[in-house]
Amino acid sequence: MDGNAPSPGGNGRGFTASSLELFAGAGGLALGLHQAGFRPVALLERERHSCDTLRMNLDALGGGVTPPKVIQSDIREIDYAEFAGRVSFVSGGPPCQPFSLGGRHRGRNDARDMFPEAVRAVRELRPDAFLFENVRGLLRESFSDYFSYILLQLSYPEVPPLKGEAWQGHLRRLESRRASRARPDLEYDVRFRQVNAADYGVPQTRHRVAVVGFRSGLGDGWSFPEPTCARESLALAKNGGGTYWKEHGLRPPQTGHAPRPAGIFTEGTPGRWRTVRDALAGLPDPKAKAGGKIANHEFRDGARAYKGHSGSALDEPSKALKAGVHGVPGGENSVSLDDGSLRYYTAREGARIQTFPDSYVFSGSWSESMRQIGNAVPVLLARTIGESVASALDRAVRPHG
Question: What is the pTM of this model?
Answer without folding.
Answer: 0.90
